[in-house]
Design a protein that fits this description.
single chain, about 425 residues, mainly beta, five-stranded mixed beta sheet, four-stranded antiparallel beta sheet, 1 helix
C-alpha cells in the first residue's frame, strides 16, 4: 500500500511577477491620494428651461390669406426673441420671417396653397412644436384654359358662374366652373364686341363695337340675332355704342362715342336720355345701387335711375381721372362694383407696362391699387362673378400674356341685375 504524498504548490516565475505588479499598483494608488477642491456637478435640472411655444391667434383669419403675398401674423407665447430662434413652416414649406418677438411672429406666406395646411413653429431648445390649421389661396390665376392662339374680345358671366368669351374668330365659347368647354354660339354678322352681358331669360346680349345695335344669343346657344336698334342720332350726334348694362327692372342703359346715354325700356322703346352729350367717350356702363355709372375718358360719372321705365336724373361726376395719381397716364377701360361699394376700374397702358392695371375707388373717394405689383396690364374688361372672384380679360398684344385672369377679392361683387331676370 502506497503512502499519500503531500504536494506543495510551486511558485513559478510568472506567478511571482503578477503578485509583485499587484503590490506596486496598490502602493501607487495609496500614495497618490490628495485633497482636491469640491466641484459642483452640472445636472440636466440646472439647465435653463425653454418652454414650448403656444399659438393663440393667426391673422388674417383662415380663408383670407394669399400664397407668396400675404403677411401672416402669429400671436402666442414662448416664441424665441432671438433672430434665428424660430422656424415657421406651412405644411413643410418654410416661411420667411419678417419680425419676431416672444409673443408675435410675422412671416411672408410661402408659395403653397391649400385649405388644410398646418402652420408649425419650431423654437430652438423647446421640447415640443406648436401647430395650428390654416389655409392659403391663389391671389390670381389663369382661367378657363385659353391659349396663345385665342384672343378674347369680351367676357360675360351667368348666375351659375359659367363664363362666356367672344373670340376673334366670331365664335362664343362657354366654360363651366369645372373647366368643361363648349362652343356656345357665333357672331356671324360682326367680328368684335364692345360689351357682353347675360340678361333676361338667360340669353346672352352682345353690343356690336361702335354700332347702335345690341344682338342676342338665345339660351342654349346659336347665332347672334339683332335684339335692339337704338336711334341713329341723339342731340345731333351719331349713336355709336361701346357698353351697356341692365337695371333691376330689365331696362337697358348704353353709351359710347356719340349720342351720350341712351336707353331701351321694358316697354320696347329705345331713346336718347339727353345726358353726356359733351363728346367725351363713354367706355363702360354699370348699374349699381339705383344709379347708372359711366366710366368715361375723363373719369366716372353717374345718373340716378328715377323710374322703372328708364328715366334718369342729372349727370354728376363721381371721380375725376386727373386725380387718379399714377393711373392718370393710363386709359380707363372697364368698371364694376363690390357689394360694399368699392369700384374696380380696369385700365390699359401701352407705353408703361409696369404700372398696376386696376384702381380701387372707395365710397369715401379714396383710391388704391388693387394688389400692387401682382397683376399685369391690361385689365381691358372686368366682370365680377357670383362670389368672391372677379374675372379680367387681359387682352394683351403679346400672345404669351393674353389670358383671362381670375382674381380673388375675398368679398362678393354687387348684383348684375340681368343675370336674375
Amino acid at each position: 500500500m502506497k503512502k499519500r504524498q503531500n504536494r506543495t504548490p510551486k511558485i513559478t516565475g510568472s506567478t511571482t511577477y503578477r503578485f509583485i505588479l499587484f503590490l506596486m499598483i496598490i502602493s501607487m494608488m495609496v500614495s497618490s491620494c490628495e485633497e482636491y477642491p469640491e466641484i459642483d456637478l452640472v445636472t440636466y435640472d440646472d439647465q435653463p428651461i425653454v418652454s414650448s411655444p403656444i399659438i393663440t391667434t393667426i391673422a388674417p383669419p383662415v380663408g383670407s390669406a394669399f400664397a407668396a403675398y400675404s403677411l401672416v401674423t402669429i400671436t402666442g407665447d414662448n416664441f424665441s426673441p432671438d433672430s434665428g430662434g424660430n422656424t415657421i413652416y406651412f405644411s413643410g414649406m418654410q416661411a420667411e420671417i419678417q419680425s419676431e418677438s416672444i409673443s408675435e411672429i410675422i412671416v411672408l406666406a410661402p408659395d403653397v396653397t391649400g385649405e388644410n395646411l398646418e402652420i408649425s413653429i419650431v423654437v430652438t431648445g423647446a421640447p415640443e412644436i406648436a401647430t395650428a390649421p390654416y389655409s392659403l389661396a391663389n391671389l390670381s390665376l389663369e382661367y378657363a384654359g385659353f391659349g396663345n392662339a385665342e384672343k378674347s374680345r369680351r367676357i360675360a358671366m351667368d348666375a351659375d358662374e359659367n363664363i362666356y368669351a367672344m373670340l376673334d374668330d366670331r365664335t362664343v365659347v362657354k366654360v363651366s366652373p369645372s373647366g368643361d368647354r363648349t362652343n356656345y354660339g357665333t357672331t356671324s354678322a360682326f367680328p368684335s364686341a364692345g360689351e357682353m352681358r347675360v340678361g333676361p331669360s338667360g340669353a346672352l346680349y352682345i353690343q356690336r363695337t361702335s354700332q347702335r345695335i345690341i344682338y342676342s344669343i338665345p339660351p342654349g346657344g346659336g347665332d347672334a340675332q339683332e335684339f335692339i336698334t337704338f336711334p341713329e342720332s341723339v342731340g345731333g350726334q351719331s349713336v355709336r355704342l361701346t357698353s351697356f348694362d341692365f337695371d333691376e327692372h330689365g331696362n337697358i342703359y348704353a353709351g359710347g362715342i356719340g349720342g351720350g346715354l341712351v336707353a331701351s325700356n321694358v316697354n320696347g322703346n329705345s331713346y336718347g336720355l339727353d345726358q353726356y352729350l359733351d363728346g367725351v367717350k363713354i367706355k363702360s356702363v354699370r348699374v349699381y345701387d339705383g344709379y347708372v355709372y359711366l366710366g368715361r375718358e375723363d373719369g366716372v360719372w353717374r345718373s340716378e335711375i328715377q323710374s322703372d321705365t328708364g328715366s334718369v336724373g342729372t349727370a354728376e361726376q363721381v371721380f375725376d381721372w386727373a386725380n387718379s395719381g399714377s393711373f392718370s397716364d393710363s386709359d380707363l377701360k372697364s368698371i364694376t362694383f363690390a357689394a360694399d361699394g368699392d369700384m374696380l376700374i380696369g385700365t390699359s397702358n401701352t407705353s408703361n407696362t409696369s404700372l398696376d392695371p386696376i384702381l380701387v375707388l372707395h365710397p369715401d373717394g379714396s383710391t388704391e391699387s388693387l394688389y400692387p405689383g401682382q397683376l399685369l396690364l391690361p385689365a381691358d374688361h372686368i366682370v365680377w362673378g357670383n362670389g368672391v372672384y372677379a374675372y379680367v380679360n387681359r387682352a394683351n398684344r403679346d400672345a404669351e400674356l393674353r389670358r383671362i385672369i381670375r382674381i380673388n377679392l375675398l368679398k362678393p361683387g354687387a348684383p348684375y341685375y340681368g343675370r336674375g331676370l
